[in-house]
Amino acid sequence: MYSFFSENPVARTLRHTRRFRDVAGILIKYGFSEILDALKLGRSKGPVNWLLPKRGKELARKFNRWQRLRMALEELGPTYIKFGQIISARHDLLPPALIEELRKLQDEVPPFDHQEARAIIEEQLQAPVEELFRDFDTAPTASASIAQVHRATLPDGSEVAVKVRRPDIEDVIRTDIEILENLAALSERTLPNASLFNPRGLVQEFKQQINREMNLALELMNIEKFSSLLEEEQTLRLPRTFRDYSTERVLTLEYMNGTPLSEILENPGQFDHSEILVEHLADLLLKQVFETGFFHADPHAGNLLVLGSDRICYLDFGMMGTISEGQRGRLSTLMFAIA
Questions:
Q1: CB of 317 within 8 A of CB of 219?
Q2: Which residues participate in catalysis according to the annotation?
Q3: Of 3, 131, 178, 279, whose CB count within 10 A is highest?
Q4: Neighbours of 281 (CB within 10 A)
Q5: What does the pLDDT look like over 212-226, one tens digit per residue?
Q6: pTM confidence score
Q7: Beta carbons within 8 Å of 283's beta carbon, 6+ residues apart
């Protein structure tokens, strides 16, 4: 499993300085130079383009504060997109208007070159792509912050989706998280009442989660466990896993052909089984929480496919949650009391 490790202090400082210059420049570009001022950073972390405040003022006239923050996170890249997605669930800490913007963050980033994907697959699976697959689509069907997906066909004719972790993503995420840790600690020392929001705790929670998501072998095990716990559910259909074609950096699953729930939500009038679908979604959620204690922790509309009129398929099992038997009992008591 990927982990954060120590290195030469000089190399770490140089790496942080280069990345912080990028982060500071983007914050200034979107009109958040006051954040750097509040943290008493100023120009101490290296030069940035000090003409950017003019651009920030222009954007401030067109977009509100939370829109600009969401745009800044998108430009900052995969680590910050994922961080924004995770903290969007913190209704206890963040204002509703900010949560609404953070929920718009899509796990869509420019794809990396298919030749790099081929090289990773061949290195991980120890065979040429032409031997591993009958067909391999060089154009990715999806490109997310941590990995991208290519459609392929196995020698036995099985249609599969091959998820490949981004090259060098470990170094990018490690640097970004180290910077976030430093900024969180600094904010608690310099910003009034910052400790009430527990910035360092938020970053640690994020660090643990993204560390798990980096390991595609763990995602495979999550899918298999989820499938075994809900195998009797007729309304649920999950992709089959292919262990011989999967590693920590490559995950091969059955290709699922359905309609993303996000498309149905955009055009609800074109779908005739909305009430049945809502019942099934609610039923599956309750069974995960109250019966199995193992639930999909990122069930946004882009991670749900509708197969036919009412069967549901979950995608992306990098974020999972667990609820102990005792917690489930207390939740059940609470639900009965409310009823």
A1: yes
A2: 298
A3: 178
A4: 17
A5: 889 999 999 999 999
A6: 0.81
A7: 235
